Amino acid sequence: MNEAMLYFVSRGKIIKYIGAILPSVTPSVLFLGLTEVPTGIPEDVVHIDMSHNSIRHLKARDFQGARSLRSLNISHNNMEHIDTGM
């Protein structure tokens, strides 16, 4: 069993929460009410869910430090542009 590691945004800062012991939990990021991707996404995050926000633009550098990132959910945003290069 692993501890649940959740990251969330509070007042524009990413907060790490280590909670109850749960089976097979991987680090996740939960976002609500975002208009842009916050800085400082932890490098051990595996899954990021930024669905149902108001994000319009993803920059190539937004996820530069998230070395373990395997899935990104950006559905249900107001996406207008996604950068394709650094």
Explain what the structure shows.
The chain is built from no helices and seven strands. The strands form two sheets. A five-stranded mixed beta sheet has the order 2-1-3-4-6, with no helix packed on it. The chain has a two-stranded parallel sheet with strand order 5-7. It has strands at 2-10, 13-22, 28-30, 47-49, 57-58, 71-73, 81-82. Helix content is 0%, strand content 37%. The mean pLDDT is 75. The chain is globular, with a radius of gyration of 13 Å. It has one domain (2-82): Leucine-rich repeat, LRR (right-handed beta-alpha superhelix), CATH 3.80.10. The chain starts with a strand and ends with a strand. It has 86 residues and is mostly beta strands.
Question: Remind me, CATH topology?
Answer: Leucine-rich repeat, LRR (right-handed beta-alpha superhelix)
Major sheet attributes: 5 strands, mixed
Domain tally: 1
The total of helices stands at 0
Radius of gyration: 13 Å
What structural class is derived from the secondary structure elements? mainly beta
Helices and strands, in N-to-C order? EEEEEEE
Approximate helicity band: under 10%
Quaternary arrangement of the chains shown? single chain
- The strand count comes to 7
As laid out across the biggest beta sheet, the strand order is: 2-1-3-4-6
Per CATH, the class reads: Alpha Beta
Shape designation: globular
Distance between the termini: 38 Å
What CATH architecture would you give?
Alpha-Beta Horseshoe
Uncertain spans, ≥5 residues at pLDDT below 50?
none
What is the averaged pLDDT score?
75
Q: What is the CATH superfamily?
A: Ribonuclease Inhibitor
Q: Per DSSP, what share of the residues sits in E-state strands of 2 or more residues?
A: 35-45%
